[in-house]
Each structure stands twice: as structure tokens, then as C-alpha cells.
């Protein structure tokens, strides 16, 4: 899920003036081009996260940049001449940033930590609330790094026609959802053994260089979190079958627990019978995915190849499908250490 899929602001200056005032910025230095830069690219969210504000410098709006404050006219002409989206971290704007950059610095405690996050955008009790999952890794020296996965321009341009298509997407560090302090956030922390912390860190460093496989249906943000949690021994069940999309989440979780306790002999028999009975409908449904949902574009890591039709049992009972992060969220709600943070006014 990309939380950036919001309605675009109009060019009506009154809309931006209202948001400018609500953000607590000096009304006397409001400029439409500056407001568009701040709000259309969502810079107001990391600024609020770090407690930064637009200030007045020589009667003009000034923004944090590399630990100092520069006037908007200087930034616009000399520093930000194009439409590139610039990184924003603890010291304000930067022209560029390393692939992995800490989102903040906590008190060192000599331990690694792994924290699962889910941001809920909108009404959590609605039928299909928008959500996004990501995670943090805290190093023994107190540096906190935030990681997430969203699609790249190629997958976004293709839309649903890229549903089964896998592209090589960049590792997001930080994931911008971490800055959304005005949304409901669930976080579930775990302390790690030193060896597990070093293992996950080594993998993340490799992914920051090589990229991460992304697809809307099979390798989305939920799978990204679950696969990295598994590296450090945390099991988050996010795979959902075709039936799993239709049936209530509580039923899915209960069915998984019961199924895991069934003797392997009976599971093997059921799997074999399923492959026979469901062969025709599986071929039909996978053909739709292959022809119309990007299956023919499927790539394995960095090497493209033709999609292979899944076997019937996997498709109906085990095949990873579009699950959205609600599977991660339901798992989080079962963990005693999960903390729910209510939306904050920014």
C-alpha cells in the first residue's frame, strides 16, 4: 500500500492558507509556492515529527536545511531548483542521503531491537481501512533505523495490470509513514540477540544496494515486514489464500492454528485431493492473472521470467495474495507488548 495515494490539492490558495495556519506557521510569511512545496510532497509530516517549524528570517519564510535555517527564496533558487523529492531527517532538508540513515537517536543500551509498525490511515473500523506496515531496527549505540517497502514508478504506472508482476524496488529508509504522527499507529517491540541483530543488519545493508522484490499481490509491505521478522525468529502469518481474502480474518487465524495441529498424513492426503479437484478452476483463475494482472511480467529478484501457474492447493489454501497489512495488524493485536498510539494533532 502506498499512503501517498491521496487526493491532490487544488491550486486554490485558500486551501493552502488554511493548512498553513493549521500547521502553526507564521501567517504573515505565507507564499503559495512555498506552501505547495511543503504540503504537496508531505514535508510537513517529518517536520512535525522532529518538532521543526517554518520561521521568519528577514521577513521571509525560512526552512531547516542541514542544521541551519535558510530563506525560502534561497532554497527555491539555489538549493531546490527542480522537482526532486529531497530527504528530510533530524537536521532538516538534505540534498542527498546515504541509502541507510538513522531516523533518530535514542539512549544507547547495548542491545538490538526490532519493532513492527502498522499505520492506520482513516477509520480503523471501516470495511477496508488504508494501512501500511514497516519496521524499525535499533542498534546498540541507540541509532534507530526505519525500513519499509513500496512500489517504484514502474509498478505504480502499471496499476492493477502489474498485480502479479514483480519489480526491483528500492529499500525505503526511512519509510515516510513513520512521520505520520496524526494517524493511528500500532507498534510491537522485540529485543534481539546480538547475533540476530547483526544478521538482519547485514541483510538490510545488502538490500539497500541491490533493492528488494516488490509486487502488489505477492511481495507487498506486509510480506516485507514478515520476511524480515522471520530472519530474527519472529513469525508473522501474512500469507492469505483465495478463500482467505473472502473469509473473516479471525476465522483465518483460527483455521491456521487448527491446521497446524492436524497430523501431516491427513494434511498430505487433503493437499493431494485438492490438487485434483481444483485443477480446472485454478488454471482458469491463474490464466486471468497471467493475461490481465501482470503475470506475464513476473520477475524473480532481478531476472525477469514467465510466470508459472500455481498449483491448486497453493492457490486456494496457501497462495500469498493481496492481503493488505491487516494481517500484520491482527497479529500485533495479539501481542501483549503492542502499543496503540492515538492520532496527534500537528
Number of helical elements: 13
Oligomer classification = single chain
Mean pLDDT across all amino acids: 79
How many β-strand stretches?
Answer: 15
Poorly predicted runs are 1-10, 300-306
Percent of residues in β-strands: 15-25%
Please state how the strands of the largest beta sheet are arranged side by side: 6-9-8-7-11-15
**Rg, Å, rounded:** 23 Å
Number of domains: 3
Coarse structural class: alpha+beta
Shape: elongated
N-to-C order of helices and strands = HHHEEEHEEEEEEHEEHEHHHHHEEHHE
Distance between the termini: 23 Å
Helix percentage range? 25-40%
What summary fits the major beta sheet?
A: 6 strands, antiparallel
Question: Can you give keywords for this protein?
Answer:
13 helices, six-stranded antiparallel β-sheet, three-stranded antiparallel β-sheet, disordered N terminus, alpha+beta, 37% helix, elongated, 346 residues, 15 strands
Structural commentary:
- This protein has 346 residues and is α+β, with helices and mostly antiparallel strands.
- The chain is 37% helix and 19% strand.
- A 6-stranded antiparallel sheet has the order 6-9-8-7-11-15.
- It has 3 domains: 13-93, no CATH class; 104-239 and 325-341, no CATH class; 243-318, no CATH class.
- The model is unreliable at 1-10 and 300-306 (pLDDT under 50).
- α1 (13-22) crosses α2 (32-40).
Topology of this protein?
Elements: H1 13-22, H2 32-40, H3 44-49, E1 55-57, E2 60-65, E3 68-71, H4 72-79, E4 88-89, E5 92-93, E6 104-105, E7 112-121, E8 130-138, E9 143-147, H5 153-158, E10 167-169, E11 184-192, H6 194-210, E12 212-214, H7 221-231, H8 242-246, H9 249-261, H10 264-277, H11 279-292, E13 299-300, E14 303-304, H12 312-318, H13 326-334, E15 339-341
Antiparallel strand pairs: 1-2, 2-3, 4-5, 6-9, 7-8, 7-11, 8-9, 10-12, 11-15, 13-14
Helix pairs in contact: 1-2
Amino acid at each position: 500500500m502506498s499512503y501517498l495515494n491521496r487526493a491532490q490539492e487544488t491550486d486554490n490558495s485558500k486551501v493552502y492558507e488554511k493548512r498553513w495556519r493549521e500547521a502553526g506557521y507564521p501567517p504573515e510569511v505565507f507564499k503559495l509556492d512555498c506552501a505547495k512545496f511543503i504540503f504537496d510532497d508531505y514535508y510537513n509530516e517529518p517536520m512535525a515529527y522532529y518538532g521543526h517549524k517554518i520561521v521568519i528570517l528577514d521577513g521571509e519564510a525560512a526552512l531547516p536545511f542541514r542544521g541551519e535555517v535558510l530563506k525560502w527564496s534561497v532554497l527555491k533558487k539555489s538549493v531546490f531548483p527542480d522537482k526532486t523529492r529531497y530527504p528530510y531527517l533530524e537536521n532538516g532538508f538534505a540534498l542527498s542521503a546515504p541509502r541507510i540513515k538513522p531516523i533518530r537517536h535514542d539512549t544507547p543500551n547495548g542491545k538490538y531491537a526490532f519493532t513492527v509498525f502498522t499505520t492506520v490511515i482513516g477509520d480503523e473500523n471501516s470495511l477496508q481501512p488504508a494501512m501500511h506496515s514497516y519496521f524499525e531496527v535499533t542498534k546498540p549505540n541507540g541509532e534507530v533505523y526505519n525500513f519499509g517497502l513500496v512500489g517504484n514508478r514502474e509498478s505504480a504506472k502499471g496499476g492493477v495490470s502489474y498485480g502479479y508482476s514483480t519489480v526491483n524496488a528500492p529499500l525505503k529508509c526511512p519509510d515516510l509513514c513513520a512521520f505520520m504522527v496524526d494517524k493511528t499507529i500500532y507498534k510491537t517491540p522485540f529485543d534481539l540477540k546480538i547475533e540476530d541483530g547483526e544478521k538482519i543488519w547485514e541483510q538490510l545493508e545488502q538490500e539497500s544496494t541491490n533493492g528488494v522484490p516488490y509486487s502488489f499481490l505477492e511481495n507487498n509491505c506486509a510480506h516485507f515486514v514478515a520476511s524480515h521478522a522471520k530472519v530474527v525468529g519472529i513469525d508473522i502469518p501474512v500469507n492469505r489464500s483465495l478463500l482467505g481474502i473472502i473469509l473473516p480474518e479471525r476465522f483465518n487465524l483460527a483455521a491456521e492454528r487448527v491446521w497446524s495441529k492436524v497430523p501431516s498424513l491427513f494434511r498430505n492426503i487433503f493437499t493431494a485431493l485438492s490438487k485434483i479437484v481444483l485443477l480446472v478452476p485454478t488454471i482458469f483463475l491463474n490464466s486471468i492473472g497471467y493475461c490481465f494482472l501482470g503475470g506475464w511480467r513476473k520477475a524473480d529478484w532481478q531476472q525477469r521470467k514467465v510466470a508459472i501457474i500455481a498449483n491448486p492447493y497453493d492457490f486456494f489454501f496457501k497462495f500469498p495474495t493481496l492481503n493488505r497489512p491487516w494481517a500484520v495488524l491482527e497479529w500485533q493485536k495479539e501481542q501483549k507488548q503492542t502499543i496503540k498510539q492515538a492520532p496527534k494533532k500537528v
